[in-house]
Each structure stands twice: as C-alpha cells, then as structure tokens.
C-alpha cells in the first residue's frame, strides 16, 4: 500500500496532502470552505468504471493538475465537475453548495468554467464576437444582446481586454476559423475566463500547441486571478510541473496519488503509470 493513499483518498492541498482532513477544511489552507469538494465520486459506463471513488478538496486559488495515462478517467472527471455528465454516486460541492443535480449552465453561472480538448469557438464569428457571446451567455441575460447597444458596448470593451490578456488583441476582428490552432485554444481560454470563474477546468490546453504557444499559455496561466481555482488535465509534463502546485494521478479511474507536484512526479508509481516514456533526465 502506497504511503500516498491517504492523500489520494482524501484531498489535494500541497503540504497538507497525506493527512486526514479536518471536517469541512481544504488541507494546507487553513480556510473553512474549499471551493470544490468531491467525495467518493463514481461513474460507470456499462461494466467499465471510468471514475472509481475519487475524492478531492481544492481551496480557492488552487493550481491542481490531474494526470494519468490515456483512458484513466481525466476527461470524465472534468465532465462530472462541469455537469455535462452525472456521477452514479458520490457528492460534489462548489463553495459548500451541492451541485450534483445542477446542469452545466447553472454550474457555469455559479462559477465553473471550462475549456475543451478541441477548440470550440464559432469559426464564422470574429475572435471578439466569440468572447462577447461567451460573456453574454455566462451572465444568462437570455435575449437582447444585439438589441441593447449600451450592453453590447460594455461587453465588447470587456472582451477586448480579455483578448489583450491572452495576446489576441491584434487578431480581435479576424474570424475564429482563420486563427491558428494555438490562437483558437487561447481564444477558448479567454472565453472560459470571461465570467471570472471560481473554478476553471482546462482539458489538455497544451495539446497541439507550438513551443511559442505553450510559452504564451504558461504566461496567461501565471497571470490568472489568484482566487480562481484551476484543475488542469494535461499530458505535457513540463506544463504540469511549471503550473501546478498539487497533482492527482489517476490510473484506471482511481486516484493513485494526490501530492505536491514535485513529489507526485518523482514517485516511482507515477513514472510507471504516466511518465514511463519520459527519460529520467527530462522529468521535472
Ligand atoms: N460516454 C462514454 N461511454 C462509454 N465509455 C466512455 C464514455 N466516456 C468515456 N468512456 C470510457 O471511460 C474511460 C475513461 O475515459 P476518459 O476520456 O475520461 O479518459 P482520459 O483519461 O481523459 O483519456 P485521454 O487522456 O485519452 O483523454 C475510457 O475507457 C473511455 O473509453
């Protein structure tokens, strides 16, 4: 039995990982309420258990990565948190509120934002209009975006600032479909940030990016609001090492380890399950 199993079963929380959590507290934070608390979450597809009793507690501002081999259950876990999928059992709380029965739109308005593995921006709309649309959707105003010039102007000004933050201001008026893959992924990130989320879920944001795009991505991530908790699902070990303070390693749906990043990436079980193909000298 791994000495990390307590942490994997209980919480993520940097230096606190490995201890039993005080009731209602995110380890290593001293704060009363975690932003996200998952308890014993399970999801089966027929005879396959994709997520098998995962528990996780993240404080505000967490920088947490979920890593693991293909098919480990990482995207399923994000789907369960975002509300696009429902667990068979277990509980999910956002800021103490039970969100298990809420749909993705409600969860989004409560502060959960996400970006997907594939770019999702509307190809025919400009980068700017994509962010305006995302922001309008987030605030749930339903109708009238184009009928209220004042509202539209406000959202446009805010959207331009968002694009500037991710380095896309120079292409603001270009159709999203004309942008490079890396630019479209940054556009998705800007869209996810348009509601200033409490919890940001990032599904392989570095996939398919050039080194220059990855540097830009890391720069954007480093400047995220310090109160926004982030769960990063990522295969790119350098991005994980540079961004995450804590890591959960999933293998066959189970949380193998939850620990501070350096400790998790150096552990032999992790190297076997996840970093097998990475030569020792490249492990961060
Ligand atoms: N809707 C579904 N129906 C049936 N099986 C599914 C469904 N979604 C996921 N699975 C299965 O659940 C397991 C976990 O899939 P998931 O996509 O969560 O893994 P992952 O860790 O994100 O993998 P990758 O790194 O390749 O994206 C896989 O075996 C997958 O085939």
Automatic annotation (TrEMBL):
Stretches for region Disordered: 1-31
SUPFAM superfamilies found in the cross-reference section: P-loop containing nucleoside triphosphate hydrolases (SSF52540)
Record bears the keyword GTP-binding: no
GO terms assigned for molecular function: ATP binding
SMART domains: AAA (SM00382)
PANTHER family: ABC TRANSPORTER ATP-BINDING PROTEIN, CONSERVED COMPONENT OF ABC TRANSPORTER FOR NATURAL AMINO ACIDS-RELATED
Name by which UniProt lists this protein: ABC transporter ATP-binding protein
Source species: Streptomyces physcomitrii
């Amino acid at each position: 039995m791994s000495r990390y199993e307590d942490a994997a079963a209980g919480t993520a929380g940097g230096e606190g990982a490995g201890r039993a959590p005080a009731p209602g507290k995110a380890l290593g934070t001293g704060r009363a309420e975690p932003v996200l608390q998952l308890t014993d979450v399970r999801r089966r597809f027929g005879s396959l258990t994709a997520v098998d009793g995962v528990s996780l507690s993240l404080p505000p501002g967490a920088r947490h990565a979920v890593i693991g081999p293909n098919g480990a259950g990482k995207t399923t876990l994000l789907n369960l948190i975002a509300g696009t999928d429902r667990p068979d059992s277990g509980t999910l709380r956002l800021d103490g509120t039970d969100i298990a029965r809420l749909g993705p739109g409600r969860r989004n308005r409560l502060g959960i934002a996400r970006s997907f593995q594939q770019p999702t921006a509307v190809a025919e709309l400009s980068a700017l209009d994509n962010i305006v649309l995302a922001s309008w959707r987030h605030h749930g105003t339903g109708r009238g975006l184009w009928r209220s010039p004042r509202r539209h102007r406000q959202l446009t000004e805010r959207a331009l600032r968002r694009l500037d933050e991710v380095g896309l201001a120079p292409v603001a008026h270009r159709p999203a479909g004309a942008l490079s893959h890396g630019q479209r992924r940054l556009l998705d990130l800007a869209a996810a940030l348009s509601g200033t989320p409490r919890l940001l879920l990032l599904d392989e944001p570095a996939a398919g990016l050039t080194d220059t795009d990855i540097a830009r991505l890391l720069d954007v991530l480093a400047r995220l609001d310090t109160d926004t908790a982030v769960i990063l699902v990522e295969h790119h070990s350098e991005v994980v090492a540079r961004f995450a303070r804590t890591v959960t390693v999933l293998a066959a749906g189970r949380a193998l380890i939850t620990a501070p990043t350096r400790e998790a990436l150096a552990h032999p079980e992790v190297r076997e399950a996840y970093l097998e193909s990475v030569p020792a000298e490249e492990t961060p």
